Every structure is written in C-alpha cells, then in structure tokens.
Amino acid sequence: MFTNRIKSAARVSAIAAIAGATVLGAAGMAFASTSDDDTYLNALAQEGISFPTDAKAIALADHICTSFDNGASFNEVVAEGRDESTLTDYEIGYVIGASIYVYCPQFESVIPS
C-alpha cells in the first residue's frame, strides 16, 4: 500500500505540475524518530532518488509537512518542487508521498487518487 500511494502521488504530481500550479514559500520543521528517517531515506533510495546529504532529504520532508500544516494544497507543493529542485515530476510526487506517509500521515487526504 505504501508504494502504491506514493506512486499515485507521483503520477498526479506530473499532471498537476503540467497544469501549472502556483508557487508556495512556506518553511518549517517537523520532528521524527531515527526509524522514521531510515524508513523515508530507504524509500527514496529504492526509487533511486538521492540528495547531497540525508539531512537535506529529511529537511525537505519537514518542509513538505509544514507546508501542508500551513494550508498549502498538493498542487502548490508540487509547483514549489518544480521551481526549487531538479527532480522530475515523478520524483517530486514520490518525495511528497513518502514525506506524508512517514512524517505527516494526517495529510494523506491531500494526495489526489
């Protein structure tokens, strides 16, 4: 189920990004256990998604969760990912899905199905 939900988010992000969502500029931090960090980093690694450091990958997940906590829509977070990274649309969706699944599952409902 974890992989299917994340891959669904990835597919939707590609569509949403192409549709031209708006940019979001929120920042923040969420706190997680080491096992959560390992789960998140392993999920990214299994998809071949890498960051310069683990800390940067985790900080991005924190930022994503904080953005949703501040009221951002899925499309806004996707748009920010497109504007602020070199990740593909699929990778952006996967990172968003993994972030939600591991760190802020209360926002699973923002992932379009």
Question: What's the structural blueprint in terms of helices and strands?
Answer:
Layout: H1 2-19, H2 34-46, H3 54-69, H4 74-84, H5 89-103
What does this structure look like?
With 113 residues, the chain is mainly α. It has one domain (2-110). The chain is 65% helix and 0% strand. It contains 5 helices and no strands. α2 (34-46) runs antiparallel to α5. The two termini are 13 Å apart.
Helix content: 55-70%
Global outline: globular
Strand content: under 5%
- Radius of gyration from the alpha-carbon trace, in angstroms: 12 Å
Rounded mean pLDDT score: 80
- Helix-strand pattern: HHHHH
Largest β sheet strand count, sense and barrel closure? none
- Pick out the low-confidence regions: 14-31
Distance between the termini: 13 Å
Number of domains: 1
Count, helices: 5
Instruction: Give the helix/strand class.
Output: mainly alpha
Number of strands: 0
Structure in a nutshell:
This protein is 65% helix and 0% strand.
Keywords:
single chain; 113 residues; mainly alpha; 5 helices; globular
